[in-house]
Please model this.
Amino acid sequence: MTAVQASDDTYHTNGQHHFNGKAVYHSNGTQNGGSALPAAFSKDVFSHLTLFTGNTMVTGTTGLLNSTAKKSNQELVSAIDHTLNWSLESAQIHGHAITIADNATLGPLEDDRSKYEITVKLFFLSPHGSSEPLSVDHLHNAIQQLEAALSVTSGNLKIDHFILAIPNQTFDENDLDSSEIDQFTEDVQTLYLPIWKRLSELQQTGRIGRLGVSEFSKQQLEILKAAAVQVGAAVPQINQVNLQDCCVLPKGLIDYAKAEGIELLTHGDSSDILPKSTLASLLQPHLPATSASLLEPNFVLKYSVLITSRGLISRKGYIVDAGSE
Amino acid sequence: MGLLSLGTPMHWDEAKKYADHVRTHGIIQFLNLWEATKDSKKDCLLWGDEIEYMVVSYDDENKKAKLSLRVWEILLELAKEEEEAAKDPAKKLLVNSSWHPEYGRYMLEGTPGEPYMGLPRDLLAVERNMKLRRELACKFMKPNEVPVTLTSYPRLGCAGEGLDPHHEPHGPAARSLFVPDDIINAHVRFPTLTANIRRRRGAKVAINTPIFHDKNTPKPFIDPTIPTFNDYPEDKNAIEQGAALPDHIYMDAMAFGMGCCCLQITFQAVNVEEARKIYDQMAPLGPIMLALTAAAPIYRGYLSDVDCRWNVIAQSVDDRTEEERGLKPLKNSKYRIPKSRYDSIDSYISNDPSNKPEYNDIPLVFDEDIYKKLSDNGIDNLLARHISHLFIRDPLVIFHELLNIDDNESTDHFENLQSTNWQTMRFKPPPSKTSPIGWRVEFRSMEIQLTDFENAAFAIFIVLVTRAVLSFNTNFYIPISKVDENMKVAQNRNAVLGEKFHFRKQIFPHGGSLAPGLDRSDEYELMTIDEIINGAPSKGFPGLLGLVNNYLNTLNIDIETRCEISKYLELIKKRANGTLMTAASWMRQFVQNHPDYKQDSVVSDKINYDLVKMIEKINKGEVQVPELLGTFSV
Model:
């Protein structure tokens, strides 16, 4: 690994790193500054992509975010971009599947597992209006990938807080009308309950600590609870709400959450965290042929590892899964 | 009650003979402590704040706000409360604080009863506890007394009856033309400290703070209120020997400096390496926070041209001889020493690879023998330099009874020197071999604010910055000489808006070395406080608040807590971008708009009285001051 010497770096807040001349960031030997691409991949069409960003806490990605944005996917986009810039050369290929990982900042936790709190938010990204239930296979895959990122033996990872982010879910403070209630009730039964049941099982066997959802209104929480209770599954203990709504959260939601023991935690994630077109434009400079094939993002797993007793963030990253089937 | 050993202190003539004794044993004590605690690991963030108050006694009939010298009585009552609370958990909830004396006989210091912890929710306890302390202190005050958190008392040292009870100036310890010895805390340590500084220095301390020239202020300004006495040789210092400079406010006692109040924050690190890292990372923030918290524009009844207390305190305890100050060739003094023992730090101490040797660009004065002793006993270069630099000073207060102690059990001699080097940061080893308390760092530059809301906001901000620093592994290193340049500029009138400060441009970790042709000076540039705090998006610089917010947005915080914390951060943001005034600017405005003000820089008794009354009203929520506090409720 050579430490290449730098001239002036300028960082732009949209996450694009523009280097004048050679780059200075050291990873595990891959340095890919400027616009040189490995020619080998440009014509390949990969039908499956798994991408592990590095630890966004140390790459500067999280630190440089514009924190005044209401809802954003800036962090994910910057992290993917950074990973494509730095880790493409070390990509693993199996048939038509490519796995790109920023290995330099992944790996086992430094201290005992008991010192940490691991939070996962799994964004399901089926196309809008899909009538397929959220895939339990994706869930298993996502957890396995996280275990790989943290060098944990398969089946051994305990996740303290697990947030399920269903596609295109945005908090609506207005009450649902009766047809919307019916639609949501049906969606819960057909689309979300299977995965929710699986998550409950994982909670029962101790693989997951607390379960939660994101951007649910009070009515939606009630509907989910009713459906869950009916099949003996867990009830949500967390509901994420957007930070910028803090002064306008409906009292009904606040009271309901208090009564039910649901913690209202803040978040700032876009409801559609990785549109197909965004992924395509990120891939374009590096994997142009694959980009043109418009891979469908299946899920994005966002994770953070905290040392709560000292108020520190040890790791933060994303795992992206996309395919063309 | 703080570092208050009981006993008979030595006069300087005797103490100076034992200086080497204290130093030698201090180092042995440090080495013993190091052996026992160097691997100590504390898994919890624990931290605390220290708030200093002045107790004011109103004479409403004559419209005077005097300083009450009755604080020792108040402290006795508070000590009783603390004792009862220690035995009774229910009482503990109501008291939950710890009280200490300070230099001024009118000063109180309060700390939380238990340290705060590291969760965002714990930060909400800070303002509550600060308010609890203020209420508790008030409980034992007379109806005409009130505690105020003012950094410098505007009319300290003015002629006329400004103290309650009244005492005439001029006493054997301070020999001040302006303040009596009775202004000094009665515990024997404090007058001894005062007198020994004077004796060691060979003259009274000389504090000269530039006066603010207003329309009717004479130019040159020669202070007509400097009295003459003929009791002590030092009485000639001021006028005859020229210690009092024209166009300056002259002060001649430790009380003018150490009688100021400030806001100090101490936090525990997981281990000694983390403590050293935080010490270094927070050091460049010292001048930034000083400018942001500026609250001391008035001294001895005059508007000054500075907004902060720092240089005043530095001069007020400057025990350096003329030789040490470079005014005479070295003959009896061992070293030429550039700074007072109260001033900004002189070196970085972390072994983190990002701490490049070039950043320690101030030639360090240190005791070579002590360095060697430390080094021979396994102390690494940077830490050995740090300690042997602290130990160039003489111990000023030595108690006969505590001269010979067990170096295996006590750290008294080490603490003697450690606690009389007063700097922007303090690196604190565990108090003893067996203490549950670990390695700590103290952030010391901030001025105390007028309300608990503001004090809580700044305390919380600092703690969050330390969390962000460690979480992002930031790099704030700039040459330490540039930090010193920042310190000078930070104290200027309205520095928060009018000055620029050296700050590192690229604060996220980058491997590799600098390109050839570049040197360290390309790593930093001049930025405004607004840019440093709120960021410069076009330069890709997130600002300290940007870092803190990005840190907070990664944690699991409930919405109520997040909203509360956001309020505190809003205050910081608005002070940094000029939407809200600093306390110093607001006090200036108050004086200059006062009907009695004659545009001659003079802050009269009436103006002072009205100012203190206003501050009291603000604290009680009886009056809104939007230019200072916006729509925040205190």
